[in-house]
Specification:
Elements (H helix, E strand, L loop, with lengths): L1 H27 L5 H8 L5 H11 L5 H13 L13 H36 L4 H15 L2 H15 L15 H36 L2 H8 L4 H30 L2 H6 L5 H10 L3 H29 L7
Length: about 325
């Protein structure tokens, strides 16, 4: 196991290095730079001032040299300052990361809590009316656009009924835990409804495939009850492909949900990355995207370790 973890650690470092160069290169190839934005905001800046500013920030150097300087500083823990927010990048990432973890963590847990029993129920009664009804609802959830669903919930619960806030994280002046929870209801409901259909379909397909295996028929022939067969024999093996999907969702969790965060004016990772890219805030966008890459790698590693727990035949010796 230690050899496997060491190998994965080295592979992750290699992936992060490649991704950092790719992201930095793509952002460097974007038209314009922060100095161009300064010029557009202040027409009185002369060409000499612009050239001096580019030299000051190192924007007049080759991209490989700029990347090397950034990498050297990043390895020492210096991730730079945000040009747009005028704050250290780390000070901006931590609050946004916490907000996104609350939002998408709750929606992911609710989606799994709903998808698992519903998907198992559909697989246990294949091609029945219940199975068709569950599939119909799941396809409807997959097909509904997230932005339309969010706006619909705002119109219903905020505009018409007036029982829930339309956006933000808390009432100005602070409202405590319950006020923050009320602000989370609509965005969490939007993401849960948008993702539960896909998770249900994955659970149903994996469970139906597992129930057709020979060892399931053998267990039933030995007189084991149907519920025990479902929950003790079939579920663990059926969860293996589902865990893969959840690992990918785990990476998405920390990169944020741009559409939902924009609709509900929620200050999470997705909106922050989008604003940083549009504002040519290189330091903030680069570190945020690198963090999303790191979390995706960690999610895949946890999924690989979960395979061995779910199926004893899987080993990493």
């Amino acid at each position: 196991m230690s050899r496997y973890l060491t190998t994965r650690f080295v592979q992750s470092l290699l992936v992060l290095a490649i991704m950092s160069f790719a992201i930095y290169g793509l952002m460097g190839l974007m038209p314009g730079d922060p100095i161009d934005l300064m010029i557009s905001a202040n027409p009185e800046i002369t060409s000499e001032d612009a050239a001096r500013l580019r030299a000051l920030y190192g924007l007049d150097r080759p991209i490989l040299e700029r990347y090397g300087n950034w990498l050297q500083a990043a390895l020492t823990g210096d991730f730079g300052y945000s040009r747009v927010h005028k704050q250290p990048v780390v000070d901006l990432l931590l609050p946004a990361l916490g907000s996104t973890a609350r939002l998408l963590g709750l929606s992911l847990l609710l989606s799994i809590a709903i998808a698992l029993p519903v998907g198992i129920l559909a697989a246990a009664r294949p091609y029945s009316r219940l199975d068709y009804a569950i599939n119909l609802v799941a396809f409807a959830g997959i097909s509904v656009p997230v932005f339309w669903l969010g706006l619909l919930l705002i119109m219903l619960f905020s505009v018409i009924l007036g029982v829930l806030p339309a956006g933000g994280t808390e009432t100005p002046g602070g409202g405590g835990f319950w006020d923050q929870l009320r602000h989370l209801v609509l965005p969490v409901a939007t993401l849960t409804l948008a993702s539960v259909g896909g998770h249900t379909r994955y659970v149903r397909a994996s469970m139906a495939e597992t129930l057709r295996q020979d060892y399931i028929r053998t267990a039933r022939a030995k007189g084991i009850g149907w519920r025990r067969v479902l929950w003790r024999h079939a579920l663990r093996n059926a969860l293996i492909p589902v865990v893969t999907i959840l690992a990918l969702d785990f990476g998405f969790l920390f990169s944020g949900a741009l559409v939902t965060e924009t609709i509900f004016a929620y200050p999470g990772m997705g909106k922050m990355i989008y604003d940083a890219i549009m504002g040519n805030d290189f330091n903030l966008a680069l570190i945020a995207l690198m963090l999303a890459t790191l979390v995706t790698l960690v999610g895949n590693l946890l999924a690989d370790l979960a395979y061995a727990w779910l199926d004893p035949r899987v080993t990493y010796k």
